[in-house]
Amino acid sequence: MPAPAGVGTAMLQFQKLKKEDVLRLQPYLSVQKTHMGDYSLGFQLMWNDNLSPDFAIWEDCLIVRERFRGKLYFYYPLSLSGDEQAELRAIAEIEKDCRDGEERLHFTNVPQDKLFPLIKRYGTDVSISDPRRWRDYLYRAEDFKSYAGGKYAGQRNHVNKFRKTNPDWRFRAVTEQDLPAVEKFLKEYEVIQLQKRDPLAIKEMEEVRALLPKLFDYGFYAGILLVGEDVAAFSVGERCGDMMVVHVEKALRKYEGAYPFIAQQFALAFCGEGVTYLNRMDDAGDLGLRKSKLQYLPCEVVSKYTVEPHLAIDCISRPPVYKTERLTIKPLSAADGEEYARLCSDRARNRYWGYDYAQDCKEEGLPSAEWFLRGVKEAFSARREMAEGIFLNGGMIGEVVLWRFGYRAEAEIGVRLLPEYEGFGYAAEAARGAAEYAFSALGIERAEAKCFRENAPSERMPARAGFRRSGEDETYLYFYKTPAM
User: Fold this and answer.
1) How far apart are CA 401 and CA 104, in angstroms?
2) From the CB of residue 475, how many other CB atoms can be counted at a distance below 10 Å?
3) 22, 41 in Cβ contact below 8 A?
4) CA distances from 385 to 127, 160, 323, 351, 414 (A)
5) Which residues contact 459 (CB under 8 A, 6 or more apart)?
6) What is the pLDDT of residues 6-47, one digit of tens each?
7) How far is CA 386 from the centre of its chain?
8) In the chain, fewer beta carbons within 10 Å around the N or the C end?
9) Contact partners, residue 333, CB within 8 Å, separation at least 6
10) d(CA 477, CA 459)
11) What pTM was computed for the model?
């Protein structure tokens, strides 16, 4: 009965989300109801290089994943029809994908109304965070159109001063003929941005310039505020459901009041029927920007939850010791190194184990005993698997492995023995003992196993350990066991 065998075939087919492919996401993003700017074409275009996203379609759900600081994050699935059950089925596929790929599952950009379904799914054994710096600022579009009431007195004063100082102002939608003037404006604006020496600000300017040729192809809303013939401010937005996501808003400080003025004109021009909200994105932790965004009085600072479900193996700090009728299962020590190396390096027998150490070993010739033991320790430290020795009368006779921990309280068990100890029922006893330990100590609800179809002796062993057949494919026969069996 093998342990670390080849990864199963993932049903999700991810492909790299290249900038030229972003339009394929538009049907999903244009109707999204998350009120998050991350679910937008503009975000995916402007931050594609930083996050290197992939995407897949499952049923009618869009699944986006990205790498950030070495970890893989999945967006909460987005159903085109709003089918919440389809989204949960997509989550099940994400779980399988991570399990087969030995990747830790992290969700990002989880809307508040989707948080409870995840907690219900995984129980309380999850880590949840909501970083303040990445929360979006959501405003009522009508408030920007009028700046009505005492709470917007400051913005009205700035707008009135701009009108008075610049009587020859004009606001209009950007046309292709305006692009050279916008580029000239951005160069002047960039001089100030470069002085900040902020990598994010510099990166943003690069992406804003790259966005210009795509404004019309991607259906963005873009406007310019002119004073005479000069561009004083420039803004770009995108319609997503009942909100307008403002991706770009730049103004020259020499035109006092230009920022609140173009924000108002943009809302008046483009936030018509069906647009209830303006999403003006996050503040990226910039306190000056945070103050400015708060002064416009958001109706909501939109949380973007990150959810990391834990695995059963996370609950233990060290491999355990437990006993069966004849055997002791316990961690391997240096004294077991030579016998363990003999077990692991028997390549003829281990063809049915499903893993060849030569795939990972960089040492010439036969690896040292220390190399094999180090692999066991590293795998447990990373909480990928727990391999322990099977001992009979104090001597090591094989190993039992708990691995492929899943997010619905499942794990796979593998057993292999030194050749002279086969045929005595030790493998079935060890597998049964490992399952009982997993059920009682780790809270596992389903123990799984598999064996190669061509390996007939291995097929009999799971049945002796109390496992039942659950299926087969061209390579493997599959088995399972629950606490009730």
Assistant:
1) 19
2) 15
3) yes
4) 21, 66, 20, 20, 11
5) 451, 477
6) 333 347 899 999 888 899 999 999 999 999 999 999 999 988
7) 25
8) C
9) none
10) 8
11) 0.87
